[in-house]
Amino acid sequence: MTQQRQLPSPLLFPVLLWCLGIGVARYAGLAGWLALCLAGAGIAGALLDRNLRGFFLLLFCFSLGALRYEAEQKPSRLDLVFARQDHIQQPAEFLATKLLSRSASLYEIRLQQLAGLKLRETLLLFSERKLELGQSYSALLEILPGKRDPVLDTYPARHRAYIRQNLKQLDSAPRFFPIAKWRVRLLTDLDAKLGERSGFAKALLFSDVEGKGDYREELRRSGMTHLIVVSGLHIWFIYGMCMIILNALLPRRLSELVFLVLITFYAALNHWSSSVLRSILMIGLYILARWRSIPLGGAQLLALSLLLITLAGPSQLFDIGLQLSYLSVGVILLALPHIAWIREKHLPAELLRLRLCKLLDLLLLNLAVGLAIMPVTLYYFGSASLNGIVGNLLGIPLTGVLLALGFMILFLPGGNLLSTAFAGSYALVLELFEKWMAAVAKLPFYLGDTWLSGWQLTGCAILVLLGLSMLKRLRVSWRNLPVAILGLALLFLPSTLREQKGGIYVFDCGTADCILVNLADGTRLLVDSGPLYHDAQKSWAARKLLPWLKRRQPGKLDWMVLTHLDADHSGGFPDIAAAWKPRHLIVSDETLSDPKWQEWRQDGLLAGITIHAVRDTVSFQLAEARLKFLHPDRDFVPDSSNAGSLLFRLDHQGKRYLFAGDVDISGEQYLLDKYPAELKADFLKAGHHGSSSSNSREFVRAVQPREVWITASERNRWGFPHPEALAAFRLYASSIRSTAGGTIYVPSAQKD
Q1: 710 with 688: CB under 8 angstroms?
Q2: What percent of the chain has pLDDT over 70?
Q3: How far is it, in rounded angstroms, from Cα 724 to Cα 721?
Q4: Which of 15, 259, 403, 482 has minimal CB crowding within 10 Å?
């Protein structure tokens, strides 16, 4: 066994400390003045103490990273305006740059002018009218600040805009390189030449998100997702193909210069994705270093490219694609040994021996990279797959062939024998890739719906680094045992150490209801399930609630209440029943005859759940808490789904919480006549999202709530909460809170 020798990498540790400084500045809020003091201390220490000069220089790099991140955080012009007002409505000019979601009509635009002032800011735009990418428009825009839910969201949202009127296409002078128009033209060309098979090619060549939709689940399970989006691997494929062609026509240096120009244009077509940018920088630095006869090893190239990317934009360090890209390449360059797997005396046939050694090297590489990125994907996505260890063996060469064929089809004019032959070859190879992907996806090395906490991620990182270190040295030492024990302790932290706060979460799920109650003894109650998104592919619960629960608050669901079956209250139930099945479900007796309920029963969603149908006033004891259902009772005849919505009171730790569902004024009046003494509560979940069809003044006066919760999105189309309801709340409640400002959290032991 022999070790692979590499050039020394003096940049590696300074760049790692630089990145650590950026991370500390983001997550720990390291003040700029403190980072400046640390930088001064690093310079002074390096000058005064020769023995500790290395340490002080690393401290200096750390502080520079923190200062660079702080410098990036200067508020934009729009941020300054939103500090004084909650929205902007002004004439604007903008450029449509990217289609983010066709089903949601969501675009990315670059603002060029606002109220006559020149700006250059990126916004999200919701437009019912189809926009041409690369085209400039004028319109009256309403711009709202980006909103981050303090509970559910990890990253801040971007400012968003809506077209209010006067959308016009501008006859502006074309730019020299209208990237967006080039991209649309090339994608359209692939559609024309490949038809229904163009989706895969669009994803493979241009990272088109919708292109990989049909393959998403199989790609995830097979661990081959990286093969269908433009990544560093693709750039190296393209580099190899281009150099073969260009070297046959041009001198080497000129060929490399032409390649760098072409690949930069290609990176722009792919929206400057982090993995593409990393590969281009590494290739470009390698070429420039060779021109100047400067020896640069792989680790040096990796560190220098990371430094340049984070120097230009330190926030890119927190891009998931960049993290996975650098982690994968770092493992390949720094952690893998060169192993003499089979010696000549064991297998005298030299060619066979070399082929087997290369196969074993490839398996080791796939295994090391798969294990290294597994904790990261479990932390961010709740899934990981080691099936890619096998999948990459055939998947990578097939991807290379598909990539080459895709470019040939793209550049050759259609309608001739040669282009038809290439299209046929592409279809044949794609079919082989699909069959291989489907077979690999069935392998058992897939882990789904498993989320790591931050502490567990740290433990995994310690174990992975330890394992890679031992693999690199091909030696196991007892001195590593304490480190291994620390990593295992962090990895297997009991779930009770996770963020399992008691109390009530009134989730921001739009103009809809979903409320989680964590009782003091650990019992959980979920009230309603949020909406089904308009594209009907996934509910809000599947996209937001379930990942958050699995990541932050794992555990079982004991009780669930569906107040009624309107889509804004029951839209997420199928996903919740499939992934987080409640032990007990409380519904009204009217629900049992609803067609949606019958459909759920036929689909098996209700199997294993104890159903409690409320036909009259009834109470349920939940450990120390008590649920009392007041509406509808057996004498009330509802004339609508809202009128028949369940209304109940939760009594817990000396507090009363009244959940009014969507009960309308007729139901409120019935309750006032029959159960007036039962309505008084400390907290009121406003009926029907603060509508004037509920929340009568008499009802709110009977409740006398200390605090009112309104479940309505900002600037919703119904105008909730209505002025009449707000007037009643202001008259009788001390505090009014709305999910338009994000998820409402009320601790269990909130004091008066």
Answers
A1: no
A2: 92
A3: 8
A4: 482
Structure tokens at 356: 């087997």
CATH architecture of 503-746: 4-Layer Sandwich (3.60)
Please name the amino acid found at residue 98: K
Q: Is 158 exposed, middle or buried (0-12, 13-18, 19+ CB in 10 A)?
A: middle
Average pLDDT, stretch 518-522? 88
The radius of gyration of the chain's CA atoms, rounded to the nearest angstrom, is 30
b/e 202-230 (16+ beta carbons within 10 angstroms → b)? bbbbbbbeebbeebeebbbbbbbbbbbbb
| 8-state DSSP, 5 | P
Instruction: Round to whole Å and give the CA distance between 106 and 533.
Output: 14
The 10s digit of each residue's pLDDT in 541-559 is 998 899 888 877 778 899 9
What integer is the mean pLDDT of 490-507? 72
CATH of 77-173, one of 1.10.3470, 2.40.50, 3.30.1330, 1.10.1760: 2.40.50
The mean pLDDT of 689-707, rounded to a whole number, is: 96
Is residue 522 within 8 A of residue 559, CB to CB? The reply is no
Can you give the pLDDT at residue 270?
87
Strand partners, 659: 648, 685
Sequence-separated (6 or more) residues with CB below 8 Å from residue 273: 207, 229, 230, 267, 321
Torsion angles phi and psi, residue 604, rounded to 5: 80, 15
Which pLDDT band holds residue 77 (cuts at 50, 70, 90)? Answer: confident
For residue 361, is pLDDT > 60?
yes
Burial class, 630, CB count within 10 angstroms (exposed 0-12 / middle 13-18 / buried 19+): buried
Least Cα distance to 64 among 276, 307, 257, 320 occurs for 307
| CA atoms of 89 and 161, how far apart (whole Å) | 9
Instruction: Judge whether residue 723 has pLDDT over 90.
Output: yes
C-alpha triplet 238, 243, 244: angle, nearest 5°: 100
Contact 393, 419 (CB under 8 A): no
For residue 606, count other CB atoms closer than 10 A to its CB: 16
Contacts (Cβ under 8 Å, ≥6 apart) of 57: 14, 42, 46
pLDDT (mean) for 28-55:
84
Task: Pick left, alpha or beta for residue 502 (phi over 0 → left; psi -120 to 50 → alpha; otherwise beta).
Answer: beta
Tokens of 243: 């150099």
88-101 and 106-114 beta bridge pairing: antiparallel
Q: pLDDT tens digits for 417-450? A: 888 898 999 999 999 999 999 999 999 999 887 8
How far CA 178 is from CA of 170, 184, 265, in Å, comes to 15, 10, 11
Residues 610 and 554: their CA atoms lie apart, in Å, by 22
pLDDT for 497 equals 52
Inter-residue contact 397 to 362 (CB < 8 Å): no
Specify the pTM.
0.81
Average pLDDT over residues 281-288: 89
**Cα torsion through 682, 688, 691, 694, rounded to 10:** -70
Q: Residue ranges of the domains in the chain?
A: 12-72, 77-173, 182-342+380-447, 454-497, 503-746
Residue 649 bridge partners (DSSP): 628, 658
Torsional sign, CA 184, 187, 193, 196: negative
- Reported as a single tens digit per residue, the pLDDT across 131-182 is 988 889 999 999 988 888 888 876 667 898 999 999 999 886 555 557 888 8
CB 706 within 8 A of CB 752: yes
- The tokens of 634 are what? 């057996």
Q: Are residues 255 and 247 in contact, defined by beta-carbon separation less than 8 angstroms?
A: yes
User: Are β-strands 735-738 and 515-518 bridged in parallel, bridged antiparallel, or unpaired?
Assistant: unpaired
Angle at 134 between CA 133 and CA 137, to 5 degrees: 90
Which range has the worst mean pLDDT, 150-159, 421-430, 584-593, 717-726? 150-159
Separation of alpha carbons 349 and 75, rounded Å? 67
Nearest-angstrom CA–CA distance, 531 and 512? 6
